[in-house]
Design goal:
The chain has ten helices and 13 strands. The protein is α/β, with parallel strands linked by helices.
Length: 328
């Protein structure tokens, strides 16, 4: 049983056996998730009312959304504006783990080159256990180059550091008291615990990470990208599916849901302003071209988030709830 996993013992379970992975990627249906915070209006001043946010998150869990997703934004950058959920993602994930029971939760994404890989390995494995296997570990190189000088890191080397940090984490998760050496340090005789519930927490690459698609296919358990025009996205997915790759594919979509369910679609940044009926059609098109999960971002919406959730739950979600995961 997943809940009986020993955090001091190496696991041989595949990541596909974990309940979070199975809830988000049930293989028989595309599923929907939501980016945190559950809020609309000003991305620079997100809702930080924790009781309100937890109430909304528990509501979407009960309704059948597959997951909620958090971002890693170490610094507020006026050139970008958006500060995500404001809270540190690792700290917030611990709070969410205790506030939910079946909802998957993921990072989209942790900026891996800016964090020490041994700390990150321990944090990810800890959240893996605290959630009972509901965590999806999304990683990226980050696109806010102003953050790198603040952390004493070289933005020009972040592609190499990204690969190296993932390798260090993988070795920390799958070995016991064996030496690890990399450009940023070395560990002899020590051991990172807890060990994850499977061979590793499900590892999702988010965005290009400055790597080739072949690299993503080899190293990721799933891949996440952003909204593109439908035909462009179709071509991108075809690249992910090369060489017989059947691993899951996910994408984010900004959404301003129109109060009129029949309103046509109009493009907004990385998404759509659209009524519920046309949104369902767009999601069906994405599912047909091979998208397994869509992360809906509501922050650029113009309606109260409670009303948007009402409409999504009633008009959109029923067609995309997937299969309930089996635990154990």
């Amino acid at each position: 049983m997943v809940g009986d996993m020993d955090p001091f013992t190496l696991s041989s379970l595949p990541v596909t056996s974990l309940p979070g992975f199975r809830r988000v990627f049930p293989s028989n249906r595309m599923t929907l998730g939501l980016a945190l915070p559950l809020d609309s209006g000003d991305p620079e001043r997100p809702d930080v009312d924790i009781p309100r946010q937890i109430g909304l998150i528990q509501r979407v869990e009960a309704a059948g959304f597959a997951a909620v997703w958090l971002r890693d934004i170490p610094l507020r950058d006026p050139d970008f504006g958006d500060v995500g959920q404001a809270w540190d993602p690792v700290s917030y994930l611990g709070y969410l783990a205790a506030s939910t029971s079946s909802l998957a939760m993921g990072t989209a994404a942790v900026v891996a080159p800016l964090r020490h890989p041994l700390h990150l390995a321990k944090q990810a494995a800890s959240i893996d256990h605290l959630t009972g296997g509901r965590f999806l570990f999304g990683v990226a190189t980050g696109d806010r180059t102003s953050e790198y000088p603040a952390f004493g890191a070289d933005s020009g080397a972040r592609d190499e550091v990204f690969r190296e940090h993932l390798d260090v984490m993988q070795r920390a998760w799958t070995t016991e008291k064996r030496g690890i050496r990399w450009s940023g340090g070395r560990m002899w005789g020590g051991d990172v615990i807890p060990k994850p519930m499977a061979v590793r927490p499900p590892l999702l690459t988010v965005g290009s990470c400055l790597q080739s698609m072949a690299w993503h296919r080899e190293h990721a358990d799933a891949h996440v990208t952003y909204q593109r025009p439908l035909e462009t996205q179709r071509t991108y997915i075809a690249g992910w599916r090369e060489d017989g790759n059947t691993k899951p594919f996910a994408m984010s979509m900004s959404l301003d849901l129109h109060a009129d369910a029949h309103a046509p679609a109009g493009a907004i940044k990385f998404g759509w302003r659209v009524g519920a009926r046309r949104l369902v059609e767009i999601l069906q098109e994405l599912e047909a071209m091979g998208v397994d999960h869509v992360i809906l971002g509501l922050k650029r919406g113009t309606r109260p988030v409670e009303e948007v959730l009402d409409d999504l739950i009633a008009e959109v979600l029923p067609g995309f709830t997937g299969a309930e995961p089996r635990v154990g």
